[in-house]
Amino acid sequence: MPLETYINVIIGGVLTGLVYGLMALGLSIIFGVVRIVNFAHGEMMTIAMYVAVVAFSQFHLDPLLMMVPIAAALFALGYVMQAGLINPFINRPEHSQFILLVAVALIMVNLLLIIFGPDAQSVQTSYSLDSYEIAGVIIDATKAYTGAAAVVLSAALFAFFQMSRTGQSIRACADNYTGALVVGLNVKHLYALTFGIGAACVGAAGSMLVLLIDVTPALGPGYTLLAFIIVITGGLGSMPGALLGGVLIGVTEAMAGLLFTPSAKSMFSFALLVIVLLFRPQGILGKATR
Amino acid sequence: MSKIRINRRHFVAGTSAAVVSASSISRALAQMPPLKLGVLLPTSGAQAGIGQDCQRVVDIGLGVLKDLGYPAITVINGDTETNVEVARSRAEKLINDGAQILIGAFDSGQSTAIAQVAEQKGIPYVINIAAAPPITEQGYKFVFRNFPTAPMILGDAFANQLEIFKAVGMSPKTAVMLHVNDTFGTAMQGGIGAVMPKFDMPYKIVETIAYDPTARDLSVEISKAKAANAEVLLVVSRLNDAILLTREMVKQRWTPQAVLSMGPGWYEDQYLKTLGKLSDGPLGFVPWYDPNKKVSKELVSLMGKKFPEVTMNTNHVYTFEAMMTAADAYKRAGSSDPKALADAIRTTNITNNVATGPGIQFNAKGQNDKLKNSAIQNRDGKVVVVAPASAADAKPEYPMKDYTKR
Q1: What are phi and psi of A182, to 5 degrees?
Q2: Does domain B28-148+291-346 have CATH number 3.40.50.2300?
Q3: Probe site for chain A from B217, B240, B248 (most A CB atoms < 10 A)
């Protein structure tokens, strides 16, 4: 097989993995701070994808331009969900939280089914079928744009958590819940803000992903599972870990498809997950808990 | 030789008998309670588009059957959700709800599950679309299939390909095969190995690539297929993956001499509509309809009126024929007793049907083994028949136009 084919596939895997990473970043942020596992993560991304489809089909708005407004809309949804629905469950047993979010996910899937029907819908922009050829290597233009956007957004998010006072307050909540209460931080507001930021990540990832794949209401659960695989591989609660996990899963699936058989791609993602769990249970960049 | 003389008395007596007989048959039909027909289709899930396409002809087919003199039918719909286990439970539910004959379910895996339920409960089941051979190899007494098996589809496909290569004076030497790894795709892939050697094909398959039917990104698959450096692409796919594969070929700047499809997807309306000019070129080797048959014309006309955006295709043809088989059996059995209905289906002989071939008949295994396929090609957003020559309405275009020059 020509060398260009390997390079093509690796680049494609990295670029797709970056978008996956941004999606998983949202899950990791929410878990890292609120200690709630968002089982409606993939479904929230599907909502973002449908918003992008409607914006494109009705108003011809490019999903890459719509990324910020969609992220803002998902931020609002996430904030309201945390403040109105999830906060009362914070101190309840984990199985109650699990059932709550699974119920939310089911409602989302069925609402999308009622509104949009079961058919796959896509966004075809003027550059959807474009590609760049560099020294025999063909790079999918859409994947290149979305991969770059995912890197920019992730960097902005890192900067927010490291440099802004709100970001530092959120990190304080994550590090020491009681301490945050003692120093007078409004923890419930910060939790809602965190869930909103996690949802915004998934909103941005959804508006990028709609350029790469067709959307159906049934898409959500598969991507929730994928986000779990990524954050557990990268390290639950670790932001760089989520991005690294996304890229690793993207490249693993791509190379498995090329070297073995494409129908077994998912098997290799799970195999990677099992290996990480066996040898580094906290994930590649996760912190060990004692 | 004795001569039969028809005088005025004979004529009046004969005509009266015919009128009485016809009116008594129509009275008898009118008195028959409607047949409860359980229709199982994947109207949601990954195959939702195709299931809903099949459902279109269920909705309009009842009127056509009535016009043809068949008894009334009450349809009970069941959504299999593109899931084998759901298909099984829906079949049980429809039987519990009073379904007297089941039809469906487009997919081999789902149809296999329904066949097991139908046989266990003793309710006749007419498969509309499913090509995996084992379904009618189990010795079932209540399961019938009016759709070609994978080897039948392949046999006709290879014969039609040879005819096309001869007509255009050009033959590929190598092919790469891409197929979904579901029941249908795997059966077709296995069938190619068994059937291809019986035909003196000019090409050999240099690589076979299986992929997941629910895959959302097929870039690796196309990279691998392109790297095989084959002249033609042989595919067994579904609708969504056919669209994804085409987009990837465009992005990766690969136009094979031909796309030879032995499954659904590449000729369907959504494929044509979604891809526009990029949809032109693929050759499909599929069970199709005979445009010269009377019922075909009627159905095409009705489909055109009710669904102007939709072209009549395999989904409609074979779903309608499954309904027709059920109605015909009920008419001849004169009863909704499951065994009487199954016996009637076994002796079906419908010649005024829709599909290519001599008509609807079943062998001892419950399989219609007389069906014939056609070769079709997408041209200017429409589907034309290019082989066999006896049923063609256009000449094949080969090789296909480069994707980057459209």
Answers
A1: -60, -40
A2: yes
A3: B217
